[in-house]
Amino acid sequence: MKPQVLPNDRLARLVGVPVLSLSMALLLKFGDPEFGKVLIMITLNCIIIWEGCRQLFVLLRRRFPRYNQTSRRLLYQGAAILVFTLVVAIFMNRVCHTFWPDDPTPSSVFDDFVKAIIPTVCVTLIYESVYFFGEWKNNVKKTESLARENVQSQLDALRNQLDPHFLFNSLNTLASLIDFENDEAQQYLERLSDVYRYVLVSRDKNTVTLEEEIAFLDAYVYLNKVRFRDNLQVVKEISPAAYRQQVAPLSLQMLVENAIKHNVVSKERPLQIRIVQEADRYVSVANNVQEKTIFEKSTKVGLQNITNRYRLLSDRQVEVSRGHDVFKVRIPLLQPALS
User: Whole-prediction pTM value?
Assistant: First the structure.
């Protein structure tokens, strides 16, 4: 969900500039014989400051869009606005001296700077207040929507299954009953336990590290390779640095699960799945297309759920492409939240 850089402020600008200009003129020069000249200069000053500050807001909100960058944005924004206001004060001072060289009481640059601070503060307060409350409302909606998506994901993923805690404990008990010489059975149970442990740990999280997700995926792929042997071929191409970035939990597993569920996996037609890091922005899951004529019953946990979750987590969206021979899904790699 992209933050709204600026609201629709056309009406505020059309009304705000004349109201602010007239108010300042009445406050500073009411009863002055040259009130008309003063009003014109103050109006010009307000227009320049309003539009200039507005452009600075747009630039810095795009440069620092995230909530955890607010302090940095306000610091740069404050410095930029003060410099801009000083430049406007110098410019307006030169204009006044050029058009009214015989003014008996010419103002100094400092006086014009102090006067220019008034519209600058007003404009900043207006835009920052609207922006703050708008982002606060968006964050509340995003949190509620993400919570609903996670709850729905949990319900769908675990529907018609026993409680994961019960299954996890039962697997540990079963492992103790298997002959220690049966290494394959012990290893299978260990990987199955890893799968359920990850589901338990990650189900309340919005994101996990790519390293955690890949470790879980390795356990999940192992379980399927016991079933399909070399008919299932999974290749990973991910740099060590990418493991510190974040993904939505169970997202890669869901894509691999869907590939296995909807495609033929046989000795004659092996299923090939490639998990590839694309620069530092995406990780893709691609498989060769060899659709089953009869699909397994869907658990409704799949691509739409992943797409909805990433719509709430990132400005970059899940990308799906389907060719004649290859089905590919790209999911964004998310930067770790700054503390």
Answer: 0.53
